Amino acid sequence: MPSNLFIQQYVSAIAPVDAVLGDEWLDSTTGKLYKQTLVNGVVSWADITPVPPGTAGNILLSNGTRWISGAVVSSSNALGQTAAGIASIASGAGSMALGGGKALAINSIAIGASSGGNVANIAITGNGAVALGGSYASGVDSFAAGITNNTNSYGATGANNIAIGYLAKSTSTYYTSTALGPKAIASNGGALAISTAYNGSGATASSSGAIAIGEGSATSPYSVVIGSMQFMYAPLASAVGATAIGSGAKASQYGKYAYSGADILMGGTFLQGGWQYGLIILTGGTTTTTTIALQSDGTNGSVPDTTNQLVVVANQAMTFFGSMIAKQSASANIASYLVKGAIVNNGGTVSISSISIETIVDTIGLTTQPTFTANSASSALTVTSGAKATTNIRWVCTLQTAEVIYA
């Protein structure tokens, strides 16, 4: 029987047949520890269990692995694992498993189980990860705790991700995402979801840089939602940089802000975005006599659409109040305006019911004045700049709205 310069550790229900002298075998059925020895010319497995299995025991194996009675430490190539508690498994080099946890990756830590018996679980890909109390972590240096489900449907599955709370899920594969609280979901780089799940749904931040607090959904880059579902609808921000605050608020255009205090109206009507306050900022620049449509996404001179201006959806009406400022480059010359009016979309036809535009000052000497027009093609109020030949002008218009939908 050949001897072995490197002691191997085996974990199985039956003795390994390929072991050599000096190898150690942990019987996963009985919890006993054995060492292969040669006595009087006979090869056998000597019981080296420090204490009877099932009682407090502690032994440092030859490769630096620590075994505590009832636990499992495995992997013939690993070093320095520590396992304690019945069914604990530490198989990654430098890993630690306590209270039934499974630490399968290098330098990972898995501790404890949920009340339902789900143990902390770290996949082999989760080097440096930490999982606590029935949670799952598979991303490098990720952290998961208190999730109560140890499958890859939940937990921290991306590098540096954090998931804490009942059925929380953090899955970004680029940069880090953070999901905190019951049913929180953060699924893109820099996304943050902090959930209350008071009415059953959790906060969802599903795009890069998105932030969701409460129960709403922030589904586009850098969008923000704050608030919970009062009866049926949580806030929704579905455009880049949009912000929706309060039950039932909905912000669907680039950079739009929407606030709603409730998702129910008289008569028991439930509707998302059905009654809310809105704010949108439109910008642009001119250099010649050619005017441009101001837009909320920072583009200049392109055709505006349903994503970057004040959109009025079917069966919606708005009262709007706005202010506009224009400044000439490298000059004290400005143009300033106030506007107020009402606009409605009746079955796809957008019309302005009333409008008033007041010129506060114009020291630029514009040859063309700004306009506010109904645009049925894009279901919007289109704001067009003024202009002056060979003059660089920057335009900003803010529009505040009272909004209602009634079919």
Q: Summarize this, please?
A:
This protein is mostly beta strands and 407 residues long. Helices cover 0% and strands 42% of the residues.
* Count of strand segments: 40
Rg, nearest Å = 32 Å
- The portion of residues assigned to helices is under 10%
Distance between the termini: 87 Å
User: Mean pLDDT score, rounded?
Assistant: 88
Question: Approximately what portion of the residues adopt beta-strand conformation?
Answer: 35-45%
Topology:
Blueprint (H helix, E strand, L loop, with lengths): L8 E4 L11 E4 L5 E7 L2 E6 L10 E3 L5 E3 L3 E2 L8 E3 L4 E2 L5 E3 L3 E2 L5 E3 L9 E2 L7 E3 L3 E2 L5 E3 L9 E2 L5 E3 L4 E2 L7 E3 L4 E2 L5 E4 L8 E2 L5 E4 L2 E2 L5 E4 L8 E2 L5 E3 L4 E2 L5 E3 L4 E2 L3 E2 L4 E12 L23 E2 L4 E13 L5 E13 L2 E14 L8 E5 L4 E5 L8 E13 L2
Parallel strand pairs: 1-2, 6-8, 7-9, 8-10, 9-11, 10-12, 11-13, 12-14, 13-15, 14-16, 16-18, 17-19, 18-20, 19-21, 20-22, 21-23, 22-24, 23-25, 24-26, 25-27, 26-28, 27-29, 28-30
Antiparallel strand pairs: 2-3, 3-4, 5-6, 30-33, 31-32, 33-40, 34-39, 35-36, 35-40, 36-37, 38-39
General description of the model:
This protein is 0% helix and 42% strand. It has 407 residues and is mainly β. Among the domains are: 1-90, no CATH class; 276-405, Immunoglobulin-like (Sandwich), CATH 2.60.40. The strands form six sheets. It has a 19-stranded mixed β-sheet, with no helix packed on it. Strands 17-19-21-23-25-27-29 form a seven-stranded parallel β-sheet, with no helix packed on it. The radius of gyration is 32 Å and the shape is elongated. The protein starts with 8 loop residues before the first strand and ends with a strand. Residues 1-5, 51-70 and 73-77 have low confidence and may be disordered.
